[in-house]
Amino acid sequence: MILPTVEGSALPFNMPSKSFSELGLPKAVHDNLISASGGDKPTTLDTFAGPLVIAGRDVALIGAAPGGDEQVAPLMAPLIAQMIKSSTRKSNGEHAPPNGGGGGTPRALIVAPSRELVTYAARSARTLLAGTAFRVVHACGGTTIDASAAECGNRIDLLVATPGRLLDLRERGAVALGAVKHLLIVAADALFDAGFDEHMRRLILEEGLPPLLDRQTAVSCALLSPAVERVVSHLLRPNMVKLTAVKPWLAAACAPLARQAVRFAEDRGKQPALAALLEQSGVSSKASGDRDGAPARGPSSGLTLVVVGTRRHCEAVLYFLQGEGFAAGACPSDRPKRAEKEALLSSFASGKIRVLVATDAALRVLEEELCPVAHVISFDSPPSMGDYVRRLSHTACGGHTGRLTTLVTDTTPKVWRILPACPRR
Length: 425
What we know:
This protein has helices at about 25-35, 45-55, 70-85, 115-130, 145-150, 165-170, 190-195, 195-205, 225-235, 250, 270-280, 310-325, 340-350, 360-365, 385-390, 415-420, and strands at about 5, 60, 90, 95, 110, 135-140, 160, 180-185, 215-220, 240-245, 260-265, 305-310, 330, 355-360, 375-380, 400-410. The chain is α/β, with parallel strands linked by helices. Helix 2 (about 45-55) packs parallel to helix 3 and helix 3 crosses helix 4. The longest helix is centred in the first third of the chain and has 19 residues, at about 70-85. Residues about 90-100, about 285-300 and about 420-425 have low confidence and may be disordered.
């Protein structure tokens, strides 16, 4: 087992811990964690992050996989334990929120870049706090701002929110942040990639959060981008600890089963280049003989995922492909209706649709339900390494070979920073 790198001084003597029981979690949280984890077997990141957070240290967790679990789980249970310890009184031997909690004044705050991560983090928190009187509220897209404000009208112990929705609630006066003692920023690199840098600046400096010396802060990210590195010094206390995880998800980018390539095209010639790639991959248009719409023979045979950067590109690419006779479907939104999403995924898995066009935002919603594919085509270059790896994760699965091809033009130099080792094909 390869251990993560730890940078810091005066580290806890019980790090790494051997079990959740060694962390001294409140009984309800401990029991719920054991039940949710299927046993007292912490992951490697848990054994390091847990003691650090329980010791009250600020933590920067770097290298966590760009999904939900590694970004949230190692920090969630100890953060909740800290919240309980700092804000509870004993009542008949049970933890209960203190008097005077009031509506809209959370004691712990989690900020995440997407509705999916907010929902995941809130669900995890509610699981850990089951059987206690502590209340978790989440606020993000998918519900109206009025509904979010109403949810915040009652007592809040832990608030999980996207930056945009949180600032909207602040502007309405529905939430006050002066009581926050524990702050977790999830997927900080994705926050900046998504353009939330100004939102975060406002949140940290102008919206009433206690000074960094008066709160405990943890940050998780897949990659320590320059933007995140600049902000860390303003977010975390001087005695912070930097925990850099082993990156098996990054190593997957070099997996021998996944053939990675770039294809050069003119700016105005990307759509024809895409059609040519599909033809070369064996995804024929109806005009080329694929008239019967026969389903793929294997779990990923003949299926292609095309990833674009914007909803407008998604609709334009779908229109082009259908005009060329390809059996294509699209998911341009990160909030598809459930019935439409299930019908689309079913058609794609059965091979009735051979090409699925999706935005990065939609892909985050679909990724747990999307079947593996033979070929992923990045029509627009990925904005970050985390997004590149997320795209790559949908091919070369289960021992099958796969391909990821990125279309690049003279106006997309950023791709060389994302794919430094990718051969030109």
